[in-house]
Structure formats: C-alpha cells, structure tokens
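BUG: 3D viewer hangs when loading the predicted structure for this chain

Environment: internal workstation, default settings.
Expected: structure renders.
Actual: progress bar stalls at 90%.

Input used:
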Amino acid sequence: MWRHGQEDLHANLCAGLPLQLLLVVVAGEIIGGQEAPPHSRPYMAYLEIQHKGKMSICGGFLVSKNFVLTAAHCKGDEITVTLGAHNVRQQEQSQQEIPVCHQIPHPHYNKTTKNNDVMLLQLVKRAKLNRWVDTIALPCAGKRVKPGAVCSVAGWGDTSTDRKSSSARLQEVDVVVMPDAACPRKPNGPYRFYDASTMMCVGDPKMGKDSWEGDSGGPLVCGKRAHGIVSWGPPTPPGVYTRVSTFIPWIQATMRRLLP
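Structure tokens produced before the viewer hung:
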C-alpha cells in the first residue's frame, strides 16, 4: 500500500518512465526455518506491490544506495520498498520506506519459463546506510557455487505450503546447493523449464527446507554474497533460483545507465 502523500511524490519523480505492468506470483515463505536475529541481514528489502488494485509482497536486497535487486515476476503497477525492517507489521525506528521510480526487468525475461527472472528497482532517493540498512556484495561474473555448499535464504513469505500465512518477522533457513541434475528437465516434470546457465537448483528434498510464496525476489546468500534470487519451483525442494553471476554484466550496465 502506498502511504498517504507518497502518490504525488512518486508521480513527480517518475513522470514519463514506462511501466510494463505484470505480476506473476510464484514460489517464494521460508519452510523449515526459524526467525532471523533482528537486523542481522541489513540488505533485506520488503516489497509491497500494487497491481490491478491488489497488493502482494516480494523480497529483494539492496545492492547500492538507490538500487534493489529482485525477481522480474515481482513487477507491478507500483512498488514501495521497506529497508531496515524486522517486523514488517510494526513501525520500527530502523525502517526506511522508499517508493520505486523505475522497474527494470531483464529484457529477455520469459513469464512462461521464468527464465532471466531478475529485475532492478531504482529508488526515488538514496537509502541511508547504517547498522540497520546496508548493501550486500554480488558475485563475480560467471562465478558458480559448487553443489553441496550450504547457503541461506530469508524472507517474510509463507511458512507453510498448506495455508496462506505470511510471517510478520523475518525468517531464515539454511539450504544446500544441489547439482543441476537434481532439477531434471523431464518434458512433463516440474523442472521442465530449468536452465542451468541462468538458474540454480537449491534445497535437499530430504531436509524439506525451502523458500515459498512471498519470498520471491529475496537473496540466496553464499558466504557473504548474493548468488541467487528466489524464483520458482514446486511445493517441495529443490527450488529454483536465478543465477546472479550470469547477469552481472547486465546489472552493472543498467545501473551505470540510470545513474546521473
């Protein structure tokens, strides 16, 4: 929801910017995890998305003072980003709420296959970096995480596949990077659109830990870098994440182009 008074601000700052309006809600709450220590992930962004009169949520992560990275399927008519949040249903002193003035999905995003599911959000003003709000580093172009690596994912999405109940407080879970073969491209299987060059297969099915609806767009953190973006998948792991390292040249070029 836009807060009172921000509609005009958004209109003035974003006048003339084309918005291709699309929102597809797919995978993306944390299953089998626990509440994150408050403000332990200062790069996390909470996205409120308005689309055709309805509101949905996604995750995202701050990659510079005025850019958030998220999934392309989180696109909407209007997006408001909240940074520095732990409990998104309370007004915390740490929170910074900033409208998005430009949504830039990858030009080759395919809403059917979810390929190239990555989007940059340009904020109308720079975030103020502090102990609650900070950026996260991205991997080097082409850098891959080896299967067996333990990474983590966080979000405010649903905590159960059985019922719609998003979490007020940030949840997190450790997940294992799987070999690409664990997301087999069988013609009628759940991973038929899996593309190893642009996607990562993440989550051991034996452990049952996963991201889910509402977590979309959030980061898969391996070491101290955001290697993946919550994208899509069936109700049980493994889930499919956008492979960030593939898109580093596009991310860098787009940010350079939009900065004054």
